[in-house]
Amino acid sequence: MSDDNSEPPRTDDVEGETDGFSTTLEEAAIGDEEPSQGLFDDLLSGEPIFENKEVLRPSYTPHELPHRTDQINKMATILVAALRGETPSNILIYGKTGTGKTASAKFVSKELESTSQKYSVPCDVEYINCEVTDTQYRVLAQLANKFIEKNKDRIDRQVESLEERLEALEEYDGGRDGSAGRVLEDDTDPNDDVSFATDTESQSAGSPVETEGSADSSDVDGAGSEHPLASTPFSDREEIEDRIDSLEEDKESFQEVPMTGWPTDRVYSVFFDAVDYDERVVVIMLDEIDKLVEKSGDDTLYNLSRMNSELENSRVSIIGISNDLKFTDFLDPRVKSSLGEEEIVFPPYDANQLRDILQHRSNVAFKDSALSDDVIPLCAAFAAQEHGDARRALDLLRTAGELAERSQAETIVEKHVRQAQDKIELDRVVEVVRTLPTQSKLVLFAIILLEKNGVHSINTGEVFNIYKRLCEEIDADVLTQRRVTDLISELDMLGIVNAVVVSKGRYGRTKEISLSVPIDETEAVLLSDSRLSNIDDIQPFVQARFEN
Known about the structure:
Layout: H1 11-15, H2 21-31, H3 41-45, H4 69-79, E1 91-95, H5 101-118, E2 123-129, H6 136-174, H7 200-204, H8 237-253, H9 264-275, E3 281-287, H10 289-296, H11 299-305, E4 315-322, H12 333-339, E5 342-346, H13 351-365, H14 375-385, H15 390-406, H16 414-434, H17 438-452, E6 458-459, H18 460-474, H19 481-493, E7 497-503, E8 509-515, H20 519-527
Parallel strand pairs: 1-4, 1-5, 2-3, 3-4
Antiparallel strand pairs: 6-8, 7-8
């Protein structure tokens, strides 16, 4: 029933409301019977193929690693010493890219940490990627800051537990008139080291509790409640408060290491103190360890492998992971002997093993019936040609799924795998070419210009002539012909060009050069460089040649 006394809205009021905003929106909603499709609506309209795409990424650590049981068991038998409070032997893990080294090591380290909590044995595993953290300073700083953070967290938990003990003591003292005091439950993490006996003073004070009305640790009040300081090394409130103050002082003494600016020996000292603060076994996992040795020598490994002789509370073990089977040849013999106590080799996967891995991951990654029968065997066959690289196989399967999803196909088929193979190869080429130095780009551009002008079996002299003209055009320094020859060899190693040394009889030997990558795509990447963008229209002078 409407209210007859209500006044109709005044026209001037409605028009005065920010251009009639409310009325305009209402009319617009009524007028649009069919809302227009947005940019992403069409893309979202198709059925997704993936259930969990992350399973196909290299960063994912699976719960099960097919065909790596022997290597995982060998790692476990070495690292089980940590669960006994002993120092595990150092381990070096070798194998080509994509053979499951990092995934297996991370899998074992997760199991180690979870088991250490189960048996109340403090054990920490820290992972460092030495391709990113590639100097001694950065490695030590990153490790120091990680352990400082862990120490602060543990101190906070210990202080919290001690403060709860003080509250329980206060309640107990307040309830001595007959009411029951609160019994403190111990629900602390076994790895937190909240043991009340973490310093020498406290351990020596582990005698029976002597407080008023409590002659020994088994004393209870009239209601049967245990004294809050029973089974602890503390005899009174003051000792607990002193321990809290001591812990707070320890926490304030930890100073995080900046990523630059300190002397290396100071960084090492801070790292050493942080590791040795608590009793624990520490496993340091150094992935791509050969990159660290290439960049910074073996000083880091020497310091880490010799730490145990100086540590009082902790024990340190190192796991090194490398693609280079010969990197230890460059190590100091003392480092080599202490570091390589145990060696584990990961062989490449064959096509059948890759098929099992892909099948295992695809069961979780894709929706039912999203794969045709020939997709996994084809991905495995392509990756087996690349030295049994499981990472390549997973990338191929994921990219094939993405291409199928973009084309709104319901099933991934062979065509999508072949498209993914071409795309991954092109992406690799694009990335390599984009990151080349300017001089290498000029040499490559000279080769492209010669091929585009119909020159076959290009030799070094011809490349050098065009290279000089390109340098003049962009005002770049001209390198010697010997140096240009070296740059061509580097491009050959990267798989961008194919350079074969041929004999010209009495005229000596020369390199015959041809491109190994698509011309148009490579040229487009080169021209995206701001320094080379102005040389597109140059017509090179191709030296006339007499060919037999």
